[in-house]
Amino acid sequence: MKRHFLIILFVLFQLSVYSQSKKEVKKHKIKASAVSVIENGKTIQESKTIFDANGNEVETTDYNKDGTIKVIHKYKYNSEGDEIQDDEYDSNNKLVEKKLIKYNSSKDKIEESYFDLAGKATRKHLYVYDSKGLKIEKKIVDAEGKITSIKKYVYITK
Q1: Taking the model in full, what pTM does it have?
Q2: What is the sign, positive or negative, of the torsion defined by CA atoms of 13, 21, 81, 112?
Q3: Closest by alpha carbon to 32, among 17, 43, 45, 46?
């Protein structure tokens, strides 16, 4: 019983480190965190995250249940700390997809452009905001510029 309690406590500690905000990561000078799961007495690594000095995630690695790498994401940020690029790699560290992110003057995300490993555009996510800065629409556009879906956001204030 005591062993199970310690295992649960260990897992919760790892989750609490992993789920820290950027501000807390920076304050506590956290350089990396890992999440693992204990199933049937076996510890399985789930993910690993590496942070920069500003508390930004610069690399995340997700693992399969057998411990092999599933996917790696490497992130880049602008001088204001906004994510501007997400490069996705496969288990062989080969680039699979690149995502570039653009913001408006209010620092709202307005566009995510996706590219394959050859650098060819595959799709875009376009975001629209109202005069209050609330996101009201997300459009997904394919490589030819055709809208494939539109998601609407409605806010109830009273």
Answers
A1: 0.80
A2: positive
A3: 17
